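Researcher: Last one for today. Full complex below.
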Amino acid sequence: MTPRRPKIVGFCCERHGLDSPVAAAKSGITYDASVRIIDVPCTGRVDGLHILKALEDGADAVFVLGCLEKNCYYDTGSIEGRKRVEHVRSMLEEAGIEKERVEMFNTSSTMTWRFPEIVSKMCDVVNRLGPLGKEGDEQ
Amino acid sequence: MIVAKRKPLGEIADMIAPYKKITVIGCRSCVAICLAGGEKEVKMLVSALKVKNKKEGRKQQFEALVVERQCEKEWIQEVEDKILDSDLVLSMACSLGAQTIGDNYPHKLAFPALNTGIFGVPEEQGVWSEKCVGCGNCIIHTTGGICPIARCAKSMLNGPCGGSSDGHCEVNLEIDCAWYAIHERLKLQNRLELIEQVSAPKDWSTSHSGGRRTYVREDAKLTQHQKKGKGAVR
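Model: Here's the assembly. Have a good evening.
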């Protein structure tokens, strides 16, 4: 039986956050995980509810990838995104769920290595913590 | 407005653990403004509880609702069928909301998901501070519009005390001394003579110390005849 691949959802901003996975895809990099990318106009648009819903609906881990904080296209969008991520992380911690399952990252269009690095890090987290609930347990 | 704060998720999860069918009801009034129990907070709480249940393999069924004002029975009657159909109502309103549900449906369980805190005002985005304790006998016209009962740690009527230092309170240097603020405000208003007037001991019978308070407006009350006409008697 094929071992279960970690399910990871990434909310990537369409300014800098999406360039990194596109560059990685063009160079033929593959991942040992099922990664679902959701492009958002800005990480400031990502709501805590979006992150929780992703976990609720089957993701083992979620990351948010935005512009570098001093180079955000919308000035403070990635700072807002980080605040939302921190809020969800604190909620998870209160609920006894590993907060490492949710992370915020920043990148720029030129950092082509960043996306594979992030996916690898999130895979390590899921492999260490295990899946979030049993398969088919989504409520 | 009434400012409240969500209870820790672990505490809420423990509270609701024995129940299967749970209706979470928020309120669009004060607790929505203070980001504790509005529509988004209800959805986030339900989602977080579902994630926790998923991790722990527990099965519970949630319904998320929001009413306009949970402290008024007319609004909660709109979701009566959901309340009656659940094992437990988890109220994301202030304690008034949970108690209104409990008083109107006494055979149903209504648990609080929030800790009701203060009568506060928003100072900046995400910050609320207490400015009234509802003592039932307002005197701020004599204190430059600043309430010494709520804003002085000792609720002094003739302040400041000896602990006031550079405009700050000895209890916590991050808190402004209410009586220093009153002095500065009265000076600005050219009414500084008011600070020299000695206030008599306060009559606390109008506060909570006098037991549960009920306010009545006789002209607004319905007569028995009117109640019959409106079918308002429950």
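The mean pLDDT of chain B is 94. Chain B has two domains: 2-118, 135-200.
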